[in-house]
Amino acid sequence: MSIILTDSDMRSDHAEKQRLPKISVIVPIYNGEADLLDLLGCLRMQTYPRDRVEYCLIDNGSDDRTSEILKSASRAGFTVHALSEPHIQSSYAARNVGIRAATGEILAFTDADCRPKPNWLEDLIAPFEESIVGLVAGEIRALPGDTLLEHYADLQQTLSQKHTLAHPFCAYGQTANLAVRYQVFEQVGLFRPYLTTGGDADLCWRILRETSWRLRCAEQAIVRHRHRATWAELRSQWQRYGRSSRYLHELHGVGLARDLSLQQYGYRLSRWLLKELPIATVRTLQRKGTLADMLSTPIGLVCAHAHEIGQRHAQLPPLAQQIEWLK
């Protein structure tokens, strides 16, 4: 049986699409040459109507081919604005450039090394049907990895929003997968441009603690992200988390994590060696576990120590307290 669409049907469909909120997707990029083509491919595959979305991609002072690729992307058949923030080396300063250039009602944030699923935008904006919703956090899952540390991070769901949404001080969503109403920025300001980590929590907390807007989670709005594959990358990641904790402590009074004592390190390693490792080894031999399960505690202690170092030595720069405003 064939279905014939009348002019009235097509006008109705067009009107329905026009009622959808316009979205501005904002992506800060620093030396993103290796990731940009894959990211652009994911953006091109979005199911959200193309005439209701624009992509603001901001080069944050890259010294690779990022700028060249962005200029080519602006001729790729969907709306791409190639922008630049060469003065402040901070992803939050770059996002502010995107926010100022955006024309959408909803601003969706992700990163250059993320891979949004085709229905990402469609699912991410759905909760905004509630008029009280000011921001929505989508889920972050791992890209397939081959190394021990990637398997460990996947096992721990390190990047999942479930951790930040359950933060004991106040929930927040990570900017790898976050959407915010444009009018919210008019009330609370933009990101702190000189902050280098923790800016997503800072923004969400200003919104949720200073206004009546609500946060929702869109579990089906998924982006995939690559886990750290080397020990140096892992330690750097957790040191950054430690610096973030210190900065948020100074900005919002959030409690700091206590350093583990030598006795605590010794207890956890002893418990791992005598109890956890034998159980995990048996499970691995039965093909019910992996090497990451066997070494989970030692790797976790490396992460904890790196977090301690980052938290202990970080000091919030005075400029990082500044908040930019739209006007």
Tags for this entry?
eight-stranded mixed beta sheet; alpha/beta; 46% helix; globular; 327 residues; 8 strands; Spore Coat Polysaccharide Biosynthesis Protein SpsA, Chain A
What does this structure look like?
With about 325 residues, this protein is an alpha/beta fold. The protein has 13 helices and eight strands. An eight-stranded mixed β-sheet has the order 3-2-1-4-7-6-8-5, sandwiched between helices. The termini are far apart. The model has no long low-confidence stretch (mean pLDDT about 95).
Tell me the layout of helices and strands.
Layout: H1 7-19, E1 23-29, H2 33-44, E2 53-59, H3 66-73, E3 80-84, H4 91-101, E4 106-109, E5 114-116, H5 120-124, E6 133-142, H6 148-156, H7 161-165, E7 178-181, H8 182-188, H9 199-210, E8 214-225, H10 231-252, H11 262-285, H12 291-294, H13 296-313
Parallel strand pairs: 1-2, 1-4, 2-3, 6-8
Antiparallel strand pairs: 4-7, 5-8, 6-7
CATH class label of the largest domain? Alpha Beta
What gross morphology would you assign?
A: globular
Beta-strand residue percentage: 15-25%
Structural class: alpha/beta
CA distance, first residue to last residue: 57 Å
CATH architecture of the largest domain: Alpha-Beta Complex
What is the helix fraction of residues, given as a range?
40-55%
CATH third-tier fold name of the largest domain: Spore Coat Polysaccharide Biosynthesis Protein SpsA, Chain A
Weakly predicted, low-confidence segments: none
Instruction: Let me know the CATH homologous superfamily of the largest domain.
Output: Spore Coat Polysaccharide Biosynthesis Protein SpsA, Chain A
What's the number of extended β-strand segments? Answer: 8
Let me know the average pLDDT. Answer: 93
How are helices and strands ordered from N to C? HEHEHEHEEHEHHEHHEHHHH
